[in-house]
Design brief:
Blueprint: E1 3-7, E2 10-11, H1 25-37, E3 44-47, H2 51-59, H3 68-77, E4 90-92, H4 96-112, E5 115-125, E6 131-133, E7 147-158, H5 180-187, E8 192-194, E9 196-197, E10 214-215, H6 217-231, E11 236-241, H7 243-253, E12 258-259, E13 262-263, E14 265-268, H8 277-286, H9 291-308, H10 318-330, H11 338-350, H12 359-365
Parallel strand pairs: 1-11, 2-3, 3-4, 11-14
Antiparallel strand pairs: 5-6, 5-7, 7-8, 9-10, 12-13
Helix pairs in contact: 1-9, 4-6, 5-7, 6-7, 10-12
Length: 383
């Protein structure tokens, strides 16, 4: 297998997919694209290494009964409809297979001289010892305002001067305009990036001699994608991610996009205006959309559209998109044509998403039933 789409790990915050269906956009787009490619299902990826997660655990009344790892597992399970976990399973950024790959990659990069373990002057909280960075501000771990200078060994990446952190080739988007602003943002980071953090939960760097430190989660989410790709023997994993998320994680993931002949690329997707479910429901009623067609529109077509409209879909665009979808669905053939399907798969493999707005190509791709299972009992917008 070559190209395989994998969702950028979703941050495991205090929400459910019913409340915030946009969080599943990447997951749903991945499942739709992989189905067109004929690839097997991939696990849903979740980002659990967050300072907010540490704080929620510390503030929880049952913290002495429920461990940090178990709390994350419970929160992920609660995202799905009870009793219907994803058939492909879930994978977190602290899973044993991810941690093992992270240490393997870090050791290789250290031996090559790409990464280094070196003393760095930082500021730490005088109360809890959390690293607060290089600029004085209140500790985000315990909210204390006192900090002191401290020099300790950290895992760092000193990138050579003028080395681009992002290039056009890092985006899986054939014949699409390069995201110039992202390329510019990626260059505005320090030449030295610290890749170790103080966290209660994460991939421990103790095997590297860095006791009490965990790998920066922005690097960890990339390694989780590579680990998922390795399960499927995919050499070209494509990580679905919003532009904001890419701007936040790309620099720290730069040393971790390649491993043993595998190269990770990004597929940018925009946001979907799921927030006003009542308006979406009224829109479907006006157009006399059946529940099944409505569910496909919300959970299959719109996620695919988000890869075409990378800047995001606006509420004003929804009526036109629904009309287009209804017309396309009425032309769906009983048996898809082989030539059209072959061309469609070629476009998907190349990252060319223009076919989403082509009636003939899109009609060939429509599945009999929605791809994603386990999020809700009924489609968003249903009463």
């Amino acid at each position: 297998m070559t190209v395989l789409y994998i969702n950028g790990p979703v941050q495991n915050g205090p929400f459910t997919i019913v409340e915030r269906p946009g969080k599943a956009t990447g997951i749903r787009a991945v499942e739709a694209l992989n189905m067109i490619l004929g690839a097997g299902p991939v696990p849903h990826l979740w980002n659990t290494v967050t300072l907010a997660g540490d704080l929620r655990h510390r503030d929880a009344l049952d913290r002495d009964i429920v461990g940090r790892q178990e709390r994350e597992e419970r929160a992920i399970a609660a995202k799905y409809t009870p009793g219907t976990p994803p058939a492909s399973g879930v994978l977190t950024d602290t899973a044993p297979v991810v941690a093992a790959l992270a240490l393997e990659m870090a050791e290789r990069l250290l031996s090559e001289g790409t990464l280094a373990i070196t003393p760095v002057a930082v500021l730490v909280c005088t109360r809890c010892g959390h690293m607060t960075g290089t600029v004085a501000h209140a500790c985000r771990a315990c909210r204390h305002h006192g900090v002191r200078p401290y020099t300790r060994s950290l895992l760092v990446w000193d990138r050579p001067p003028d080395t681009p952190l992002l290039a056009r080739e890092d985006f899986h988007a054939h014949r699409a305009r390069p995201p110039a602003h992202l390329l510019a943002i990626a260059q505005n980071v320090p030449e030295r990036l610290v890749l170790s953090r103080t966290r209660d939960h994460g991939i421990s760097l103790e095997p590297l001699g860095l006791d009490g430190l965990a790998l920066d989660p922005r690097a960890g989410v990339h390694i989780a994608v590579l680990a998922a790709a390795a399960r499927s023997n995919a050499r070209q994993p494509v990580m679905t991610v919003t532009e904001n998320a890419a701007a936040n994680v790309a620099a720290y993931g730069a040393p971790f996009r390649r491993h043993n002949g595998t190269r990770l690329r990004y597929a940018l997707h925009g946001r979907i205006p799921y927030d006003d479910t009542a308006a979406l429901q009224r829109l479907c009623e006006v157009h006399r959309i059946s529940p099944e067609v409505r569910e496909l529109f919300l959970t299959w077509f719109l996620p695919l559209c988000s890869l075409h409209f990378r800047a995001g879909i606006t509420a004003a665009q929804l009526p036109a998109l629904l009309k287009f979808w209804r017309r396309t669905n009425l032309t769906r053939p009983g048996t898809p044509g082989r030539d059209v399907l072959a061309e469609l798969r070629h476009s998907v493999a190349a990252g060319d998403m223009r076919w989403v707005m082509d009636v003939q190509a899109l009609s060939q791709a429509i599945p009999e039933h929605p791809v994603t299972r386990g999020f809700t009992q009924e489609p968003e917008g249903a009463s």
